[in-house]
Design a protein that fits this description.
The protein is built from 10 helices and 14 strands. By secondary structure, it is of the alpha/beta class. The longest helix is centred in the C-terminal third of the chain and has 21 residues, at 286-306. Bound molecules: adenosine-5-diphosphoribose.
């Protein structure tokens, strides 16, 4: 039996994600949105690409959660995107209502699914999904660290003129202006980045990474990033479906790890068939630990506003 993924939201992130999933033949896809006709039209269009691309996976666009039943993974992308000048946090209250309504339905029809949340402000929305679904913490994951790390790695590869495949780098913390790129674990083909780049250049790259989402919003003017975010989700689904035990930075519910309690914050986790199978605890420098705590405090503020 093929796996099944539900993608909630047939907008830029959701439709691009559905495209990537069927292209890689990772799973059948249910694409759901409140707009009538849009998920159906995009779903049918993707299905009709099957004979050309050679995939047999099925994709169904729908407005009815019954069609999402028994999904192995549910990805939450629905919500309002960020407009220029708007911070991720401005989206808080509007997207809280969207996530609550959608996850209630999705969890009812797919009680054993692993939830991956993309909707911003990410950390508060994944915490909402955790509370609303009642799922165990290993089955509720926030996508942010993979994307933020990919941006960081892109800029590093560009600055050093090396393959992106040679660049390893972690970005931890909340998915916002307080995110924490971790230079002490950034390597180029195994060589610590501090040996290859002057501090000033690295600081500029860290700053650009923190503002990476806003940079795209300012260019697009009518929406936010979707190619890299959808690619990040696919990497997470691939790790889960293939039980890779892959260590990736994701938002996970912490209960004491990294000195943080009762909050979703981006940390390295081991992703496998059971979702988050381990929170990987790495040693941080005192500065990095302080930045992580500051970032967690920013997440806590949002979570308290919506009472999750
Ligand atoms: N249920 C289902 N779908 C909904 C709901 C809802 N309650 N409310 C809104 N939607 C749908 C919209 O109809 C739209 O098709 O969510 C989709 C969002 O698509 P876009 O506006 O294109 O936004 P997108 O770029 O995909 O971003 C979605 O991901 O990266 C984050 O910050 C981003 O929070 C935003 C989310």
């Amino acid at each position: 039996m093929r796996k099944k993924v539900t993608v909630i939201g047939a907008g830029n992130v959701g439709a691009t994600l559905a495209h990537r999933i069927v292209d890689k033949q990772l799973a059948d896809v249910a694409l759901i949105d409140i707009l009538e006709g849009v998920p159906q039209g995009k779903g049918l269009d993707l299905l009709e690409a099957g004979p050309i691309e050679g995939y047999d996976v099925k994709i169904k666009g729908t407005n009815d959660y019954a069609d999402t039943a028994n999904s192995d993974v549910v990805v939450m992308t629905a919500g309002f995107p960020r407009k220029p000048g708007m911070s991720r946090d401005d989206l808080l209250k509007a997207n809280y209502a969207v996530v609550k309504a959608a996850i209630e339905q999705a969890a009812k029809y797919s009680p054993n699914a692993i939830l991956i949340v993309v909707t911003n402000p990410l950390d508060a929305m994944v915490q909402t999904a955790y509370r609303v679904s009642g799922f165990p913490k290993n089955r509720v994951i926030g996508m942010a660290g993979v994307l933020d790390s990919a941006r960081y790695r892109t800029f590093l590869a560009e600055a050093l003129n090396v393959s992106v495949q040679d660049v390893e780098g972690l970005v931890l913390g909340g998915h916002g202006d307080t995110m924490v790129p971790v230079p002490s674990y950034t390597t180029i083909a195994g060589v610590p980045v501090a040996q290859l780049l002057p501090k000033e250049t690295l600081d500029k790259i860290i700053d650009r990474t923190r503002k990476g989402g806003a940079e795209i919003v300012n260019l697009l003017k009518t929406g936010s990033a979707f190619y890299a975010p959808s690619a990040a989700v696919v990497q997470m689904i691939d790790a889960i479906f293939n039980d890779r035990k892959k260590v990736l930075p994701c938002a996970a519910f912490l209960e004491g790890e990294y000195g943080i309690n009762g909050l979703f914050v981006g940390v390295p986790v081991k992703l496998g068939a059971n979702g988050i199978e381990e929170i990987v605890q790495i040693k941080l420098t005192p500065e990095e630990q302080a930045e992580l705590e500051k970032s967690a405090a920013a997440v806590k503020e949002l979570v308290e506003i919506i009472g999750v």
